[in-house]
Each structure stands twice: as C-alpha cells, then as structure tokens.
Amino acid sequence: MTGDWLAAPTLARTRLALTPLRLSDAADFVRALGTPAVAAEVTAHLTYAPPDLPAARRLIAAALTDPDRMPFAQRLVGTGELVGTTSFYEIQPQHRSLAIGHTWLAKPYWRTGLNTEAKLLLLEQAFEVLDALRVVWHTDIRNLRSQAAIERLGAIREGVLRHHRIRPDGSLRDTVQYAMVSDDWPAAKARLLGVGSTSR
Fold first, then answer.
1. pTM of the full predicted structure?
2. CA of 184: how far to CAs of 135, 181, 189, 190, in Å?
3. Residue 45 sits in which domain range?
4. How many other C-beta atoms lie within 10 A of the C-beta of residue 160?
5. What pLDDT score was predicted for residue 194?
C-alpha cells in the first residue's frame, strides 16, 4: 500500500482543481447551487434539500468530521470559483478500497467536461497514488443521468442494493452499485483522456 489514505490533497488538471472542503466555503456552496429551482434540480438525488447558509455549514461540518470521508471543493483553475463538491468515502486502507460520491456540479457546468476532469483527478489519486485495488460508486436507481455518467467512466454495474437508503422525502431508495478495479484503470484512463481532450 502506498500514499497516505487519510491525507486530504489538492488535485488539479487544466480547468479544475479539487481542494479540501472548508467550513468557510459554506457561502460559496450555497451560491454555486444557484436559484431555488436550479438548486432543487442539482440536489434532486442527494441526501439533502437545497440548503440555506446555516444548513450548508452543518452539511460541511458533518462531512469534515466523518472519519470515513474526505470531502473536496470543485474549483475552477484560475478564478478559484467553487462550482461543486465531491468526496472519497468508505475509505478502507486495509482493503485498498474507497468510494467516490457526495458529488454535485453547478448546473452551468453540466456537459462541459468538468465532471470527466474531476473523475480523472480522483481516479488517478486512487489508483496511481494510493495504489487502490477497487473504487466504488453508489447512485439512486432513479438517477439515470448519474448511472450513464458512471458507465462512461468505464465502471461496471455490480448490482442493486435494495432499500439501501431513506430519501429526504421518506421514501426507500434502491441503490445501484458500480465499481472499477485496478485492472480496469489503464483502459479507462486512456478513454477518459481522449474524451477530456475533445471536451469543451
């Protein structure tokens, strides 16, 4: 096992940087989500409704105190503008395994290639720095857009976890689980680098 699985690094590519999320990011967190209607769309499949500033502070504080989670702010290179968040979670150094999730990206940046860039940063960190054997994704069975995005990364659908979560509205959520293992990574990286080079 290599790398420090519990250290929160700063990761950067051409257009996007992932920096450790801070409590002081709460106002930018709320701003990036957009208007109430847009924020509702962005958070539709997350575990929380669009937060106001106090709620955003509570969400960030909970992320920062979770021992199994490493939260990042997604920021534009150059301006430093916060445009979303993402996390490593279920971090298991003893099994060389972790999950990627708690992810949202501000709506103006959907379909711009930024999501691909973020996933490249996280997967490079996982497989090439931490020497992970396995990276996992969980997504709501209703979230077809997320499932398609995960599949484009090269992850394999492993199954459905029934009644895995309770949604904010109280309904029971079935979760689709995907994974990528270290043997999958070289081909996935080559494909993602090709996608990233043509994204606008």
1. 0.92
2. 10, 5, 9, 11
3. 11-198
4. 11
5. 83
